[in-house]
Amino acid sequence: QARLVESGGGLVQAGGSLRLSCAASGLLFSIYGMGWFRQAPGKEREFVAAISGSGASTNYADSVKGRFTISRDNAKNVVHLQMNSLKVEDTAIYYCARYKTPYTTAGAPMTRLVESWGQGTQVTVSS
């Protein structure tokens, strides 16, 4: 399994922006689909966004479409989540995920298809 380390979380006012990063260890980073999930207190972990190994295909939860952008830099083994127009309901712990292979866009929301998880980073949006 890969080691995934998230960074970039913090406290921001509603309407603000944050950029999360996830650094992955190991070789062959570019063959793995990568994603972001989040979990709010008392709620189940939910899918946020995913990106294919090449970066050509992305997938977003309806709740973040148009506000969040996932990207990756395969030369640096890093995946990012740019979060704009943040809302109070975006408050959660955000987890980086590496998918099992082969990655499919349709399977991205399924936690059972995740092979490795990061430790999580807290995002708090205040009103």
Oligomer: single chain
What's the total number of strands? 11
Structural class: mainly beta
Beta-strand residue fraction: over 45%
The ordered H/E elements are EEEEEEEEEEE
Radius of gyration: 13 Å
Low-confidence stretches: none
Count the helices. How many? Answer: 0
> What's the shape?
globular
Largest sheet, strands/sense/barrel: 7 strands, mixed
Indicate the mean pLDDT: 96
- First and last CA, distance: 38 Å
Q: What is the helical fraction, as a range of percent? A: under 10%
Task: Please explain how this structure is put together.
- The protein has no helices and 11 strands.
- The chain has strands at 4-7, 10-13, 18-24, 34-39, 46-51, 58-60, 68-73, 78-83, 92-99, 114-117, 121-126.
- Strands 2, 4, 5, 6, 9, 10 and 11 form a 7-stranded mixed beta sheet that branches. Strands 1-3-8-7 form a 4-stranded antiparallel beta sheet, with no helix packed on it.
- The radius of gyration is 13 Å and the shape is globular.
- The model has no long low-confidence stretch (mean pLDDT 96).
Question: What secondary-structure arrangement, pairings included, does this model have?
Answer:
Layout: E1 4-7, E2 10-13, E3 18-24, E4 34-39, E5 46-51, E6 58-60, E7 68-73, E8 78-83, E9 92-99, E10 114-117, E11 121-126
What would you say about this model in short?
Helices cover 0% and strands 47% of the residues. It has 127 residues and is mainly β. Strands 2, 4, 5, 6, 9, 10 and 11 form a 7-stranded mixed beta sheet that branches. Strands 1-3-8-7 form a 4-stranded antiparallel beta sheet, with no helix packed on it.
